[in-house]
Recover the amino acids of this structure.
């Protein structure tokens, strides 16, 4: 079954505890946490202490998406804060093989992220190392953008390579996911759907998550 990870970027920050509870009660499998540095992406968001406070209380695991230059500097801190999955962008990591190994050494699952313009082939040497591959289906930096369907070509290739070579990575998509785009992404082979605005603005997230998982 497909897993769903609501992105806290779209939550009501004045009621974060209640927002986390609401998504967990609605059947979310992970909480997706967007960390932005105003440098790798043109926006700023949350940091380590916020992850730590939420991880201490959250009934579901934290999926931490690092949109940072030099993300390797922060791996240990986010792992100590309680991140279950830590994902870094291939475009920000000249030593991606070593970085994925460094993530796994902390006990967290190691994810690698592809921007819409980055070919799936850029990961061929690390497919064995990755626990998760996150395909951006919008340009990273902001919530509420429109899904870019061409990005699913990467997902299809990665799903095919996983079948052919028995790799173990999970496939995740992030950006512009709603019930319709979730359906197309699932057909392409996705295991985890990240959705921000769609779920947090939805009147009935329980129903929306159940539909996305079908
Ligand atoms: C964008 C973030 C996403 C964002 C998705 O850079 O990585 O996780 O929250 O938001 P929606 O679902 O609104 O496109
Ligand atoms: Zn994200």
């Amino acid at each position: 079954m497909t897993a769903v990870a609501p992105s806290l970027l779209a939550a009501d920050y004045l009621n974060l505890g209640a927002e986390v509870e609401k998504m967990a009660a609605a059947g979310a499998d992970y909480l997706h946490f967007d960390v932005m540095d105003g440098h790798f992406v043109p926006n700023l968001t949350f940091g380590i202490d916020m992850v730590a406070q939420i991880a201490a209380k959250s009934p579901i695991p934290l999926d931490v998406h690092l949109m940072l230059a030099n993300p390797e500097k922060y791996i240990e801190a986010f792992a100590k804060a309680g991140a279950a999955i830590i994902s870094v962008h291939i475009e920000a990591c000249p030593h991606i093989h070593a970085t994925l190994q460094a993530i796994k050494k902390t006990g967290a699952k190691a994810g690698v992220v592809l921007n819409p313009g980055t070919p799936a082939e850029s990961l061929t040497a690390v497919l064995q190392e990755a626990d998760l591959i996150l395909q951006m289906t919008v340009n990273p930096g902001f919530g509420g953008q429109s899904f870019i369907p061409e990005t699913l070509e990467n997902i299809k290739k990665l799903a095919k390579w996983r079948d052919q070579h028995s790799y173990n990575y999970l496939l995740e998509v992030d950006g512009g996911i709603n019930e319709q785009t979730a359906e197309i992404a699932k057909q392409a082979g996705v295991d985890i759907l990240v959705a921000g605005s769609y779920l947090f603005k939805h009147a009935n997230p329980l129903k929306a998550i159940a539909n996305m998982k079908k």
Summary: The chain has a mean pLDDT of 98. The two ends are 7 Å apart (CA to CA). The pocket of D-xylitol-5-phosphate (ligand 1) is lined by residues 7, 9-10, 32, 34, 65, 138, 140-141, 143-145, 174-177, 194-198 (CB under 6 Å). Strands lie at 3-6, 31-36, 62-67, 85-89, 109-114, 132-136, 170-174, 192-195.
